[in-house]
Amino acid sequence: MSDVFQHAIRYGWLNDGENPIHAVRQNTKRERVTEPLEAWEFRALIAKLPQKMRVIGIVAATTGLRISEVLGLKWLDINWKEAQMNVTRSVVDGIIGKCKTEASRKPVPIDSFTPGELLEWRKETCYAEPEDWVFASERAGGKMPPWSDTPLDRILQPVAKKAGITKWVGFHTFRHTYSTLLKGNNADVKVVQELMRHANIITTMNIYTKALTPAKREAQSRVVDVLLDRSRNVESAAESAT
With 35 labelled, which of 131, 201, 215, 240 sits at a CA distance of 20 to 30 A? Predict the structure, then answer.
């Protein structure tokens, strides 16, 4: 293959030092539109997942971490006393790297529910030392976490179908669900930015503000209440009377 690149440079098809992948047309759009899970869908999904995948899903959905960051966690990154995680690395296709942005490397708070799930997993895994990966790959002898595509294809999507979820479920679904519920519960946009660890608040506003349908309907109805001087409490009482 190196000979091919040398010939390409010699005949002017490629500049010396140029990455050949830059010449390849790439589609930057996601192949699928990521839809957030509703609460019942998430509960149905994690109830059927095997323990390791269940804990991965819980960590991702309760912290908003990207799957590369979840897989990049080591036990020493978890501060049990302060109830937070130090997110310092990411793992993509077996390659260990830095987090996406400086904002991504900020400590992440952990809800009181999540440590219990992590501790239960730590009792079960063979790789529970501080330097071990939290979700170490058994196939790799604990030296690396698994590639995200493997559990996605073999476990996550089939289990989602069995749980009655018709949406396509990927690992990004957990992060998107987290951000959507933050917005749906009227969290301040600056708080959402901090929790999602976006470097730019425009990213928060433009990408992660898709509210669930009930929340959107409620917000819309509040506007109509004001416009029409409508009291839904009165309407509900009238409907109950009939």
Answer: 201
Domain assignment of residue 228, yes or no: no
Helices 171-184 and 51-63 sit at what angle, rounded to 10 degrees? 40
4 located within any domain: no
Residue type at 196? M
Rounded to a whole number, what is the distance in angstroms from the first to the last CA of the chain?
Answer: 79
Is residue 234 within a helix (H) or strand (E), and if so which, with residue range?
helix 232-241
User: Where in the sequence is the domain holding 118, given as residue range(s)?
Assistant: 39-169
188 within a domain of the structure (yes/no): no
Provide the number of structural domains found in the chain. 1
Each residue's pLDDT expressed in tens, for the chain with a length of 242 residues: 445 444 444 434 444 444 444 444 344 344 567 788 999 999 999 999 999 999 999 999 999 899 999 999 999 999 999 999 999 899 998 889 887 655 556 788 889 899 999 999 999 999 999 999 999 999 899 999 988 786 667 889 899 999 999 999 999 899 888 888 887 777 777 777 778 777 776 666 665 445 445 655 666 577 777 766 777 554 444 444 44
